[in-house]
UniProtKB/TrEMBL annotation:
Signal peptide: none annotated. It is a multi-pass membrane protein. This is Mup3 protein. GO terms for molecular function: L-amino acid transmembrane transporter activity.
Length: 507
């Protein structure tokens, strides 16, 4: 096991907290939006529909097991940032700088904030277009600001609230599942709804299915499981992290998979296949309208989505602040000591202000949805690359230190799946057709833009650690200092080459 720093935040997260954290992070609006699109992509086949969800569910399991093995070797907060810096330590500080700058720049939660504002208005019965456009962003901003205040006042209190609301979210999703089961058990004279799922039609394919459409369905399913990795951003705050993750990692994914399976079963039971193939809006809305009527059903679903997304915002902001703080502790970015500090509330206030500021800019500046989607793609594309590098890094660490006992061990199937999927996600956008209907011709290919940004981050590293020291004839030495709030950070000292000819990383 690689040595690690204890953080002043302390270890205060137990098994239940971690499970609910994963639940809050993964379950948002995706399960109420993507199933109809997936059903259409697989040609209306129930068998292929559930196969897609099984593959997507396995992807989340494979990912969290890979990261749990890395976390058992490197039990520190920071997640990907820490894993990559230990695995790919040559050239020195390259991966730290490239990953760190990119994550800090793109650490916004704009999409969730806007979604929360929209569905909050739906939940209170407001669906007028101009009103929605005027008030959805301010409401999302107000909730974001409230979340920051709560995290500043008491992180432990927010964690407990998150745990309780995570339980409520699971209960609500199971209640949604009971809607479908009631149609199976009770006669239609009581439910007023017919059962639309029949064994004789289970393997039937009603419309054309291609490899491309099936692949698209898998990607949509995986999107609904997005967020499994973020628990490792706060690994340093988990009690007995190895044993806790042994229990919490598989159990949380199993719990989510069961909920998703039951809800998708409910969709197929309640909504006729022909209707499901034609749905372009949120399939969850159709489900609730069939049970509760158009107006009341919309209010119930909107309340559930607003509740789910609100919990997601709290969890994401908590994780981003910890990730940013770990990046600034490396000391290679301007004002690192300021942004790494816990002063004055014993919370990473300054690190939280970065995603708050970036998100606020998007909320204030008038922009269309294409810009938002483009920004999300700019963040998501490199993240998949980093996922693949981290999971492949497991094999590197096993070969580098074969005698080490990995307390949590991912299977080779888990590792292979994650690496191959990352390669697919890397190549796909680079070769996509320019005629793709989902693309905006006014914007450059987001994959190329992402790679250009990564290249600029590499240039920053090249100038700071290679060109400037060579040109001005000095070397950089990394020193550890302790701030007055107890947080340890690194700073880089310049020394003439004749007195210090090398610099060494501190592990």
């Amino acid at each position: 096991m690689i040595s690690h720093d204890e953080t002043p935040h302390g270890r205060h997260l137990g098994v239940t907290d971690v499970i609910m954290m994963v639940v809050q992070r993964i379950i948002g609006s995706g399960i109420f939006a993507t199933p109809a699109m997936i059903y259409r992509d697989v040609g209306g086949s129930p068998f292929l529909f559930f196969l897609v969800w099984l593959i997507a569910g396995y992807s989340s399991y494979a990912g969290i097991m890979c990261f749990s093995e890395l976390g058992s070797i490197i039990p520190r907060s920071g997640g990907l940032k820490v894993f990559l810096s230990i695995i790919y330590n040559k050239p020195f500080m390259l991966i730290n700088v490239v990953f760190g700058i990119f994550i800090v720049i793109f650490g916004s939660i704009i999409a969730n904030v806007i979604i929360f504002g929209e569905y909050f208005l739906y939940a209170v019965g407001i669906d007028d277009g101009p009103v929605m456009e005027s008030y959805s962003k301010p409401i999302g901003f107000a909730f974001l600001f409230l979340t920051i205040l709560l995290l500043l006042c008491s992180t432990k209190f927010v964690i407990k609230v998150q745990t309780v609301t995570g339980f409520l979210k699971i209960i609500l999703l199971l209640c949604v599942s009971l809607m479908g089961l009631s149609v199976l058990i009770l006669p239609s004279s009581i439910t007023k709804i017919d059962n639309n799922l029949h064994l004789k039609d289970f393997f039937n394919v009603k419309t054309n299915v291609t490899i491309a459409s099936f692949t698209s369905a898998i990607l949509k399913g995986i999107f609904s499981f997005n967020g499994w990795h973020t628990t490792h951003n706060v690994l340093g705050e988990i009690k007995d992290p190895i044993n806790t993750m042994k229990i919490a990692a598989p159990l949380s994914i199993l719990l989510i998979n069961i909920c998703y399976l039951l809800i998708n079963l409910t969709y197929l039971i309640v909504i006729p296949s022909d209707e499901l193939l034609e749905i372009n809006e949120m399939v969850g809305l159709v489900l609730f309208e069939k049970f509760f009527g158009n107006s009341f059903g919309k209010i119930i679903l909107s309340s559930l989505i607003a509740f789910s997304v609100g919990g997601n915002i709290i969890t994401v902001l908590y994780h981003i602040s910890r990730m940013n703080q770990e990046i600034f502790r490396e000391g290679f970015m301007p004002f690192s000591k300021f942004f790494a500090s816990n002063y004055p509330f014993n919370s990473p206030l300054t690190s939280m202000l970065i995603p708050f500021f970036i998100t606020s800019i998007f909320l204030i500046i008038p922009s269309n949805s294409n810009i938002f989607n483009y920004a999300i793609n700019l963040e998501s594309y490199p993240t998949q690359i980093f996922f693949g590098l981290a999971c492949f890094g497991i094999l590197i660490l096993r070969k580098r230190n074969p005698e080490n006992d990995h307390h949590i061990k991912a299977s080779y199937l888990d590792i292979s799946f994650m690496v191959l999927f990352s390669i697919f996600m890397f190549l796909g956008p680079l070769i996509q057709s320019s005629k793709d209907s989902d693309s905006d011709s006014s914007l450059p290919n987001y994959a190329i833009t992402s790679l250009l940004i990564l290249f600029l981050c590499m240039l920053y590293w090249l100038f700071m650690f290679k060109l400037l020291p060579w040109f001005f004839n000095y070397s950089l030495k990394q020193e550890t200092i302790t701030l007055h709030d107890g947080m340890t950070v690194h700073q880089w000292e310049k020394s003439p080459n004749e007195t210090n000819s090398a610099y060494e990383p501190l592990v």
